[in-house]
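pinging the channel bc i need a second pair of eyes. not urgent but kinda urgent?? the chain im working w is below, pasted from the shared doc
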Amino acid sequence: MTLLDAQPVAVPAPTRRGDAPRRRGGTAGCLFVAGYTLLLLAFGVFPTCYAFYLAFTNDRGRFTGLNQFTRVARDYRFLPAFGHILLYLALWLVALVVLTVLTAVVLRSRVRAGVSALLRFLYYIPGALAGVASVLVWLFMLDPDVSPASWLLHRMGLDSFAAVLAPGNLPVILVLIAFWTGAGGWMVVMYGALNNIPDEVIEAARIDGAGPWRTAWSVQIPMIRQWITYMTILAFAGGTQLFVEPQLLQTASLGRVSPTWSPNQLAYVYAFQQGDFNGAAAISVFLLALGLLCAGLLVWRSSMFTLEER
């Protein structure tokens, strides 16, 4: 009798005792995420619900519909604040995606393993600094009187600290600070994503005649597009919450930088200088809607959660 003549053998259904490990695994999984879930509810879901409540009511708790939103949108500081943050996000996301992915590809394909590990460690070091410390470091770097790069600042026509912190320069300065502190960690993530690509795929591309850059553009980058989308969503969400950096720059410049430069600063002014928590909540809901809209668009266009057929 051959294998083709063999009759299929019925496999008995698993017993209840056999299901016990699966149940124990499910319990362990629930316990594993329980702490995160509690923190998410306490510091994410509940504050968001409370912000929605404040945004649709007045200081007496009465429902006002969209009145809070229309009121803050008519504020002369509202459109400039959102315009500043959108310009900053455009510069920040382009710089982050292009330079981070490019650096990761170069480290993966053109640099020896030992040197690559050292460079990745050096790239990550600035990310260990808190946002406040990063701003202080860059205040030192951008002051033409004490900066090690003062010669470059003078060549650019920036002869004083006030000239450096001119309103038109602020988006570029904030992008430099954000890239210096945040890009290193994402380079490590992108490098790990590239390492997950099977060597057989890269070798097949080389056999087909693809050079390093063609391989990166046609093979490596498409295969890590979901990681790139993930990075872009988180970077966008973090960028919309910009507060510490422009606030410290505003203090250091002795008022040359607007105290309502970003939407978060404007919300802070509403809440703690004007005592208008309802208006501040409306601004926060605007930011939430902007973040969700862009995240949904990126996920939809990139098919981030589409299961690939094996």
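so The longest helix spans residues 20-55. and Confidence is low (pLDDT under 50) at residues 1-11. — does that match what u expected or am i reading it wrong
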